[in-house]
Amino acid sequence: MKYEDSVAYAQYAINEWVRVFPRSFVLGPRQQQTVRFQVRPQPQAANGVYWTRVKILANPQVADIDIAAEEGITTRITFRFEQVIAAFYRKGNATTGLNITNVEVRHENGRMVLLPNLQRTGNAPFIGTMTAKVYDGRGQLVKERQITTTAYFEEVRRLEIDTADLQAGNYRVDLIFETRRGDMSPTDLVQAPTITETIQVTLP
After folding, report:
1. Confidence grade of residue 19 (pLDDT, cut at 50, 70, 90)
2. How far apart are CA 85 and CA 188, in angstroms?
3. Which residues have C-beta within 8 Å of that of residue 182, sequence separation ≥ 6?
4. Does domain 96-203 bear CATH number 2.60.40.2360?
5. CA within 20 to 30 Å of 126's CA: 12, 41, 97, 120, which one?
6. What's the pTM value of the predicted model, to 2 decimals?
7. Rounded mean pLDDT of the chain?
8. What is the pLDDT of residue 65?
9. Domain boundaries in the chain?
10. Angle formed at CA 89 by CA 88 and CA 94, multiple of 5 degrees
11. Do 53 and 86 form a contact (C-beta atoms < 8 A)?
């Protein structure tokens, strides 16, 4: 998401399409509140996925907490909670995928840092996981690390692997990108074929 890109905002943002009911309410202990989001379809919009971020603010309904201090000085604490979640709207046929144009490799304090340059394809963001599998010269899997990842436009992502216990030498790294996540249902994700990029690295 590029917050200062007015062109991308005009093309993809659904801020002006969304209405929320209710916009504010008081939630007591052990209470629940259903909040409905209504998206007004835009007939002129092309097929694809559009999005925004929803910020949820929780303001205290009780007095501030005063903590007395010496010499007549008082510290006042106010708790304010903010949560930001992504909201997506899909219209018509949506596709996604990745082109991996380059993978930069760095070695920092016993860690291998992988920096893949990703170019999103299709008309929807790529939302899924990135897995790195490290194999030694005999083809044995010696390290594996997985993180969630996204690519809305052209992105550089970062994945670190602890290699302090590995011997110096040559290794193969498979970078695997899949449109699946533990915190989202597969039906909510625009699916793409699994993408694997293999690189050769040398540990110092």
Report:
1. very high
2. 15
3. none
4. yes
5. 41
6. 0.83
7. 91
8. 56
9. 6-91, 96-203
10. 105
11. yes
